[in-house]
Request: fold
Amino acid sequence: MAPSQFFPPLNASLNALSGVFLLIGYVLIKRRNIAWHRRFMLAACCTSLAFLACYVTYHTLRGGVVTRFAGTGAIRTFYLTMLTTHTILAVVIVPLAIISVTNGLKMRVARHRAVARWTFPLWMYVSVTGVLVYFFLYHWYPS
Ligand code: HEM
Reply:
């Protein structure tokens, strides 16, 4: 199977899994279940790290060839806005996630809660839009 067939659905699935783990982790902390909140948040870190490794591998294998979005007009503006905010926030959440996990694991609860309150919605946004970008690019408006 060619990398261009194998990696995009794998990357989208890893993004989707991160989103599901984050959501479950959030529901668990709302129910005051710290042990399982910790496990699911660490699982989200693992799937996001696996995504990063696969993303870098895929783009290295492709040697700079990019997949073009075929949509035009308003849908193109929407797609490019989503892609730009996704990309910027994907960089922003890296330090936020590291700080949230570190404070969480050390049980610095007040500091953890203060940062994690921002980390959670931004990370969710990146995971969900990662899946949407995949569908827009490879299924709904393929070039
Ligand atoms: C992996 C290690 C983690 C541990 C051990 C941990 C632990 C905790 C603890 C002890 C609390 C406070 C519960 C309370 O109010 O008594 C908490 C709250 C919270 N955590 Fe984590 N956490 C971890 C990772 C994360 C990550 C990575 C995120 C964000 C993506 C996150 C999101 C949150 C949020 C949003 C709250 C506040 C919930 C609320 O205010 O109702 N946690 N966590």
User: Anything to note?
Assistant: Residues 74-105 form the longest helix (32 residues). The pocket of protoporphyrin IX containing FE is lined by residues 22, 29-30, 34, 37-38, 41-42, 97, 100-101, 104-105, 107, 109, 112-113, 116-117, 119-120, 123 (CB under 6 Å). The CA atoms of residues 18 and 44 lie 5 Å apart.
